[in-house]
Amino acid sequence: MNSDNFTPYKAITFSEPVLERSTSFHHFMDKRRSVREFSDRPIAKEVIDQLILTASSAPSGAHKQPWTFCAVGSPEIKQKIREAAEKEEYENYHGRMSDDWLEDLKQFGTDWHKSFLTTAPWLIVVFKKAYDLVDGEKQKNYYVNESVGLATGFLLAAIHNAGFVSLTHTPSPMNFLQKVLDRPANERPFLLIPVGYPADDAEVPVLERKGLDEMAVFY
After folding, report:
1. Residue 196, beta-bridge partner list
2. How high is the pLDDT of residue 1?
3. For the chain, what percentages of helix, strand and coil (3-state, to nearest 5) are there?
4. Tens of pLDDT along 94-136?
5. Which residue of 54, 113, 177, 204 pairs with 189 in a disulfide if CB–CB is 3.0 to 4.6 A?
């Protein structure tokens, strides 16, 4: 190990008891919900900067950081994204989706209309880098889906921590995002996340999360 490449780790300690702190954080995160009804109340770009910087602190394979976060505040570009997304979603709801899938979606009251794409003050489109391009040469990235998934999780937590709401929107196929945002060939759309304040009359479905005994196994 080359010591020149390493620095001492400075551990983080808290005066609050560990169980109390972890329980408090769980209760805070448990209030996070996917919201489809947004206010058009503005959010400063500097705040979005910090959310993206938090997302980029996620671990990644070989520290390649194979992600690009496209923050869209332009009304014109948001309109283009909405038009393209609704076109794909219309096809999904009118033939692409199976009957089982449509039945599972009924509890959310969704359809092909996606007004949140133009109402929310910001859209963050997460792209994954299948490979990097350095001076025109391809450089391999590792565990790309896992890395970008982790970064997206950090982003959602940061959005919630700031007091905003979000939605993990996955119009399928998503290739139109690459075209609308003019992204290079090595970047592939991963997720589209509207970010903003909830509308005054926003509602969310009544849902229950799985209990610990349903999704954890201890050995």
Report:
1. 165
2. 59
3. 40, 20, 40
4. 877 788 888 888 888 888 789 999 999 999 999 999 999 888 8
5. 177
The per-residue pLDDT of the chain, averaged, comes to: 94
Q: Which two tokens stand for residue 77?
A: 């570009």
Helix, coil or strand: residue 215:
helix
Token pair, residue 161, equals: 């921590």
Q: Show the CA angle centred on residue 178, arms to residues 135 and 102, nearest 5°.
A: 145
Q: How far apart are CA 195 and CA 60, in angstroms?
A: 24
Alpha helix ranges (H) inside the chain: 18-29, 45-55, 75-91, 99-105, 116-119, 144-161, 175-180, 212-215
DSSP alpha helix (H) spans, 56-120: 75-91, 99-105, 116-119
Count helices and strands (H / E) in the chain: 8, 6
Contact 124, 52 (CB under 8 A): yes
Two structure tokens written together for 116: 């949140």
Q: Which tens digits make up the pLDDT trace of 42-66?
A: 999 999 999 999 999 999 999 999 9
Which residues, 6 or more positions from 73, have their beta carbon under 8 angstroms from its beta carbon?
A: 45, 48, 121, 122
- Residues 110, 85 contacting (CB under 8 angstroms): no
